[in-house]
Design goal:
Strand order of the largest sheet: 3-2-1-4-5-6-7-8
Mean pLDDT: 96
Structural class: alpha/beta
Helix content: 40-55%
Distance between the termini: 53 Å
Radius of gyration: 20 Å
Largest sheet: 8 strands, mixed
Oligomer: single chain
CATH topology of the largest domain: Rossmann fold
Strand content: 5-15%
CATH superfamily of the largest domain: NAD(P)-binding Rossmann-like Domain
Shape: elongated
CATH architecture of the largest domain: 3-Layer(aba) Sandwich
Length: 297
């Protein structure tokens, strides 16, 4: 089994890299917070002191990073992947970033002779731990074919969606719909409460109805317990909404609904729910509607 590099050992990177270890790959891992790699090291990974060390040690390097700035630093910095990866290496980034930042990395990778895959995923850290993510990759077809056996370790549905930034755009499309669902669900549930519906029964029936998408079903279970423990925080969702609205401006797409949802999430952040799950929009609309946000029957 080939040695694989992994940069960024956060909530998503840890389980994803762990699946590669479990499959028998050697993993060389690095995180700016050295302690974050401890879980992987305990399972047999080797900890690297720098991004450059990872790039020199592995012909295929993954990264899982929080934002555009982190991607630019890891990919393009003087100790970055592209400065140290050998000609013909494969760099696969799994972050949610803007198409524009990703395109900068693509141009630099091509100049260095490094193949670059944009590997976005749909699903949260619990789904990552269960290897139940949906994987959307774009970039050179030969790079995708080489990486596919590893990508299949992350989940059962793996798609190659183009040669350029299509995977980045598709991730924003999906997260737009997730954020919109949170805003819509918040208003619907407040209406139901005001109309005298029983909380638990309302959630059960909504989840079983024609609108019971996987995200509605999952959030209904959490909301039944009034559990706002984050799988994806309001702060993280606001970052993605900024990317979505930025892409809408770049591509000339009207996004009035998404703009309103962005304001709802920003209001959650401003009223103390920044680190709660993004479904805290439910609490926000309840407060605006004069409903208490305590557990209900």
């Amino acid at each position: 089994m080939a040695t694989v590099g992994w940069i960024g050992i956060g909530k998503m990177g840890l389980p994803m890299a762990g699946h590669l270890l479990a499959a028998g790959h050697g993993v060389v891992a690095h995180d700016v917070v050295a302690a974050n790699a401890a879980g992987l090291v305990a399972k047999g990974a080797r900890q690297a002191a720098s991004v450059g060390e990872v790039a020199r040690a592995a012909p295929l390097v993954f990264s899982s990073l929080p934002d555009d700035a982190a991607l630019r630093a890891v990919a393009l910095g003087p100790d970055g992947v592209l400065a140290h990866a050998p000609h013909g290496a494969l760099y696969a980034d799994t972050s949610t970033v803007s198409p524009a930042a990703s395109a900068e990395v693509a141009e630099a990778a091509a100049a260095r002779g490094v193949r670059y895959l944009r590997v976005t995923v749909s699903g949260n850290n619990h789904m990552a731990a269960k290897a139940a993510l949906t994987v959307m990759a774009s970039g050179p077809a030969d790079a995708f074919a080489e990486a596919r056996p590893l990508l299949e370790r992350f989940g059962p549905n793996v798609f190659h969606v183009g040669e350029g930034e299509q995977a980045r755009v598709l991730k924003l499309v999906i997260n737009l719909m997730i954020a919109g669902t949170a805003g819509m669900l918040a208003e619907a549930l407040a209406l139901g409460r005001r109309g005298g519906l029983a909380w638990g029964q309302m959630l059960d029936i909504v989840a079983a109805s024609a609108v019971g998408s996987p995200i509605v079903k999952a959030k209904s279970v959490e909301l039944a317990r009034r559990d706002f423990t984050p799988t994806f925080t309001c702060l993280q969702m606001q970052k993605d909404l900024d990317l979505i609205l930025g892409a809408g401006k770049e591509f000339g797409v009207a996004m009035p609904v998404t703009a309103v949802v962005s304001q709802l999430v920003q209001a959650c952040i401003g009223t103390g729910d920044a680190d709660d799950d993004y479904i805290a929009t439910v609490k926000l609309i309840e407060r605006l509607s004069g409903l208490d946000a305590s557990p209900v029957a």
